[in-house]
Amino acid sequence: MATPTVGWIGTGRMGFQLALRLLKAGYDVTVWNRTRSKAEPLADSGAKIADRPAALADRDIVFVMVAADKDLEAVTSGEGGLLTGPRTPKVVVDSSTVSAGASARVRAAAAERGAAFLAAPVSGNPKVIGAGKLTVAASGPREAYLEAEPLLKAFGNGVTHVGEGEEARLVKIAHNVFLGVVIQSLAEITTLAERGGVSRAPFLEFLNHSVLGSAFTRYKSPALVNLDFQPSFTTELLRKDLQLGLAAGTELGVPMPLAANVDMLLAQAIGAGLEDKDFASLLLEQARRSGYQVEAENVPVDDGLAPEEQ
What we know:
The chain is an alpha/beta fold. The chain contains 12 helices and 9 strands. α3 packs parallel to α4, α7 crosses α11 and α10 runs antiparallel to α11.
C-alpha cells in the first residue's frame, strides 16, 4: 500500500511536535497554521506550508489540532476550510479536545463530502511526546482507523480504537476527570506526609517506586517538590473538563461524588488566582487549608520523561 500524503492543521505546542514526528517518520507533510510563522520552522524538517486549510484537501489524511469547537468548525467548514473546495481528503483525523457535539457536526460535514472522520484526542504534553509516551483514543469507522493507525502509532506508545462514533471524546473526558481526582489525592497525601515531618521529595520517591507509582505521579513529582507550576494543563482547563465529565455523568445516570468534590476544590483554587497555573498547583491550596505555606525544596527530581532515543 502506498504511503499516504499528510496534511496538518494547527501547529501549536502539541500540533507542532506531532507534525514533526510524522516528518521524522518519513511522511510527506503539508501544514497550515493561522499564524504562519508558527508553522514555518517545520519547513526545516521537510514540511510544505499551505496558505489556507482548503489547500490541504488533496492530501490523503489530514490531521486537525486546534483549541476549541469554533476553531474546528472554522478550519473545516468555514471560509477557505478543508471541506469547502472541489477536493476532499480521504480521512480527516481530529486530535483537538472538543465537545462531542462539535465533533458530530464536523463528522456529518465530512460525510457529505465523502470523507471519513476520526476523533482522535491525545493524552500528554510536548515533553511526553518527546519521551515517546503519548497515547491516543480514536473513534470512527474501523476502515478509516486502520488507514490512520500507522500514523497515530508514530505519535507515541499507545493507540486504541474505542468505537465507531464519538466515543473517543468521552474517553478523553473520563481520562481528564481521573487526572483531577488523582492530583487532588496526591496533593492530600503529600501534604499529610509533610505535616508529619517527611519532606516531599523522599515521600514521592518512595511512592513512585511502590505499586501505586505511575508515569503520572513521576512526571508531576518535580512540580510538587519544587513548586514549578508552569502549565502543561491549567487548573481552569482541568475544571472545564471536570464539568464536562459531571455533565456526562448526569446524562448517563452515573453518580460521580469524587469528581464533584474535586470540581468544588478546583473552583476554590481558581478563586485563589491559580487558574493559569498547572493543575498540580492544587498542592498550594491543600497546604493553605492545612494551615501552612508550602516552600520549594529546590532539589533535582526525575520526572521519568527522558527524551526518546532517536
